[in-house]
Design brief:
Elements lengths: L1 H15 L6 E3 L8 E3 L1 H8 L5 H27 L3 H26 L33 H8 L4 H26 L8 H33 L4
Antiparallel strand pairs: 1-2
């Protein structure tokens, strides 16, 4: 009898315990809704995006593309093996990040390019050869100067330009995060954090290499 009473009591308690109402996630057009867990609901609530998020990703793709273009010049014009290896790492990282950003946009049915491909980070056209398209980017005149140089002079211009380029990327991340409504999407938030961490570290590395090259030049060392 005691076992039967225990089973009966457990059944009564189970029946009396308050049940959380199910959480329904609406399906896509033509598809049924589905029940999701509370954890899934929290995650889904953080996957929205705003216009500034989209603009950041579109503009950062353009920003990264110039860095890759700079490295392509380095391969044929640079003289320092240390600078060349650094450039190759930068290009690999930024090419992978470009693919990630493109996938983020396309998976949300968003255009990879901004509506006006000539618009800079703040919406201004960069027709002036001395005006950068976005923060930190080399101007058309600076890119022409880089492409026209070779040897140690190229190495110096490359490092100076890439340091400035990286600082511009950090400014773009800061601008994005200055708005409380941006970077709610987990992937975008993680990406922005990785840009800050990786490019800050690379800036320090490039500054160190540049200082060493300047010392070598002043001492007449190859």
């Amino acid at each position: 009898m005691s076992l039967a009473l225990a089973i009966l009591a457990g059944s009564v308690l189970t029946a009396a315990a308050p049940q959380s109402p199910p959480i329904f996630n609406p399906g896509a057009p033509g598809e049924a809704s589905r029940v999701i867990t509370a954890a899934e609901a929290v995650e889904l609530s953080r996957t929205g995006f705003v216009e500034a998020d989209v603009r950041f990703m579109q503009h950062m793709i353009v920003h990264h593309a110039q860095a890759v273009e700079m490295v392509a010049l380095l391969e044929s014009r640079g003289s320092s093996e240390t600078v060349r290896r650094l450039g190759e790492r930068i290009a690999r990282t930024q090419e992978a990040e470009m693919a990630l950003m493109e996938d983020w946009l396309l998976s949300r049915n968003l255009p990879v390019s901004a509506p006006d491909p000539h618009a800079g980070h703040h919406g201004h056209e960069a027709a002036d050869p001395d005006t950068p398209l976005m923060p930190g980017m080399l101007t058309p005149a600076q890119m022409a100067e880089l492409a026209g140089s070779a040897g140690p002079a190229f190495d110096r211009l490359f490092l100076e330009g890439m340091i400035r380029h990286h600082f511009g990327a950090l400014d773009m991340v800061d601008d994005l995060l200055a708005d409380a409504d941006t970077a709610e999407d987990p992937m975008l938030s993680d990406f922005a954090s990785s840009v800050t961490a990786d490019q800050s570290a690379e800036i320090l590395r490039m500054q160190s290499i540049l200082s060493e090259l300047q010392i070598q030049s002043s001492e007449g060392r190859p």
